[in-house]
Design brief:
The chain is an alpha/beta fold. It contains nine helices and nine strands. It folds into two domains: about 90 residues, Cobalt-precorrin-4 Transmethylase, domain 1; about 150 residues, 2-Layer Sandwich (Methyltransferase, Cobalt-precorrin-4 Transmethylase, Domain 2). Strands 4-5-8-6-7-9 form a six-stranded mixed β-sheet, with helices on one face. The two termini are about 30 Å apart. About 5% of the residues have low confidence.
Length: about 260
């Protein structure tokens, strides 16, 4: 089951219903624990994985779910974002099915899209980008192979789990032909009170300094400029109407900036 990007207000109705009837909840590190405790009386255990920290092995998580289910318990495996978007949800569903356990998948709001949207960045925008690519930033070989197959500056790129590798990713994109001046953004802790957003250029991405310990995503592409157009419209109502609507024209020079919420 997916818990969305962070704010429990973005949990689905079905997710809340399943939590109410759960006997055991195994949740990830980015789940709002206080909200989880309010939503269920089940036993709750954190089994999340965070970079550079000790974590519960995947095989152990699978065994915990299977053992509890075979004892007749309703088990919820609660993951940040959507369980099937870099969440190992498919692996776990297969392990359960192979053990003869009935499985229901409850989709969640994927951070791949939500983090950018919450920062005012649409990952597609008419006249600017009609496609987007989502990558896992910690798999460098796979990232390089994918970038080699994509025409530079032809779409929006969202990189999950890539904040720590931002400098290497910036260099890799430029090596594959992406313009150094391509707009870029970092969005950390999306939808939470700690939300933090940086915008600048691809060349500046590696030097950005996001808060330590906050998970985040990278967004690269002309769509990042829409954020500034929206901000301008909010400052002076009507002043940016044409730039946000049909016919959006990207500015020639990206501007770096940081927003804390």
């Amino acid at each position: 089951m997916g818990a969305g990007p962070g704010d429990p207000g973005l949990w689905t109705v079905r997710a809340v219903q399943r939590l109410e009837h759960a006997d055991l909840v195994l949740y990830d590190a980015l789940v709002d624990v206080a909200a989880l405790r309010r939503a269920t009386s089940a036993q709750c255990f954190c089994v999340g994985k965070r970079a550079r920290r000790d974590s519960v092995p995947q095989e152990t998580i699978n065994k915990l779910m299977i053992r509890a289910a075979k004892r007749g318990k309703h088990v919820v495996r609660l993951k940040g974002g959507d369980p099937f978007v870099f969440g190992r949800g498919g692996e776990e569903a297969l392990a359960l099915a192979q053990a003869g356990i009935d499985v229901e998948v409850v989709p969640g709001v994927t951070t791949a899209v939500a983090a950018a949207a919450l920062a005012g960045i649409p990952i597609t925008h008419r006249g600017v980008s009609s496609a987007f690519l989502v990558l896992a930033g910690h798999t460098s070989d796979a990232v390089n192979e994918t970038l080699a197959a994509v025409q530079p500056n032809s779409l929006s790129i969202v990189v999950m789990m890539g904040v720590g590798a931002r400098a290497a990713l910036s260099a890799s994109l430029q090596a594959h032909g992406w313009n150094a001046g391509t707009p870029a953004a970092i969005v950390c802790a999306a939808s939470t009170r700690d939300e933090w957003t940086w915008t600048g250029t691809l060349a500046e991405l590696g030097a950005a300094e996001p808060p330590a310990e906050l998970a985040g995503v990278l967004v690269i592409g002309e769509v990042v400029r829409v954020r500034e157009a929206l901000a301008q419209a909010a400052r002076v109502p009507g002043s940016a109407r044409d730039s946000v609507a049909d016919g959006f024209q990207p500015a020639r020079q990206a501007q770096a900036g940081v927003t804390r919420y």
